[in-house]
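A sample follows:
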Amino acid sequence: MSDATNTSSGTAHGTAPGTAPLPRRVADAYVDDLVALDPVLGTYLGLPGGPRELPDFSPEGQEAVAVLGRTTLERLAEAERRPGGDGDAERRCARLLRERLTAELAVHEAGEGLRAVSNLHSPVHSVRSVFTLMPTAADEDWAAVARRMAAVPAALEGYRASLAKGLAGGLPAGPRQVGTVIGQLGEWLGAEGGRSWFASFAAGGPESLRTELDRGAAAAAGAVAGLRDWLRDTYAPAVHGAPDTVGRERYRRWARYWNGTDLDLAEAYAYGWEEYHRVHAEMRSEAEKVLPGAATPWEALRHLDTHGRAIEGVEETRVWLQELMDEAIEKLDGTHFDLAGPVRRVESMIAPPGSAAAPYYTEPSLDFSRPGRTWLPAMGRTRFPLYELVTTWYHEGVPGHHLQLAQWTYVAGRLSRYQTSVGMVSANAEGWALYAERLMDELGFLHDAELRLGYLDAQMMRSVRVIVDIGMHLGLEIPSHSPFHPGERWTPRLAQEFFGMHSGLPADHVESELVRYLGMPGQAIGYKLGERAWLKGRAAARAAHGDAFDARRWHMDALSLGSLGLDDLVAELSAL
């Protein structure tokens, strides 16, 4: 393992015994302490499990994390007063740590953890997804799986206690979120021929641990069934009639959390519309090449669903996506990026049943023993059109999420583990991934109208996200230049209709997307706003260097910065 991937917090940042640490040491100590409270995080980072196999999702467990955050902010203030605490590396880490902890504490203190129901991002989803990231090569790995499955009942009981406290305190989750999650939990319980997802997963373990694995799987499935029944019979009736949208105050708080900046929401909403009109005009041009005379670009996309190039078969599609990412690495490495050996490895996977409809990526462990992975939710389909696969895998895999997050992992020792993992700002990462799609278009990889129309459809989706996410949560007026219900105010119903009119996605995927936006307010806007930040930073760096601008060097320096909020991203990228 090279020095670049050394993740020890030891004395790497120059702290002498008996002295206060510098900010990067404070940040990495926070990671260590947080992993002790959240063993799921430890698994994502590839660290050994702690005394508890799953986090405490109860109100008391949530407060323990908040206490750690407050204490860390106090330690950070002391560290910044030390000589050397104001160097560029220390300053950048300190600014990120303060911004992230302040945003997280604002969310906690508003009681958001007591109403955390989402079809994608919630405690119950992390409880299941962590098993897909656990090593399973040896018997001791499977013994850890059995122990963690046996811990699921206590974890979900703590989660239920938090939701019950939220109800008692007048903090309901959105009814649409609740109904969707109830359905997801039902899928988990009957994932394969009536066998629960946990039982199916445990079936891959060794016979020598069959008793422990079956017992753990039964306990986990029983806990999921109990939570589903409580949500259906008690929680759902109690939140009936509550709003699915969050309003301006909650939205601002969440937008800060996901984007690392206090956004001008009116400006962002207007930008979403500007991009909508720009992308729509470009889509019409490409659609004419795909299906001359098509009434709309989405008529051309529907034509491609049945007459365009496609991959048949789920496993065949997984293999094809692996080959697509491998090919991208071979063509980009040495020309537009300089990739270290561990970063060149990425795996294509099929998402487990009951996942949300959107593909996703999981980053490698800190030691790269678990590679970065892309995940395709099959959603019952066996045919996958190329127009939607190619640009999506440039986003999720290479050069998108994988190159950024694997590079962060590679340089974690030079920065801090916090900057390259726990401190990730969603809009930074999603903005890079959308920039990566655009880069592949700029480099000519989307070489025909079919693939370009798919890319533009993805760009349109991200533009529409800005419009409907801000619009429906704030109840904004639809402008007069809109081709859709001008002068009316956004509602979730109108948002879903508008999204469906401007997307090549199937109806069930559109609905899943809208439920996601309702349950994760402010997150979906970070794709377009983050991409804009990356493009501004590149344009400024190119203007500063002129003909000497080296895109390959800029890309690698940019990917080695670690996490930054949108407050800082443009400035740091511009200075490279």
Notes: The beta strands are 310-312, 346-350, 360-362, 372-376, 383-385.
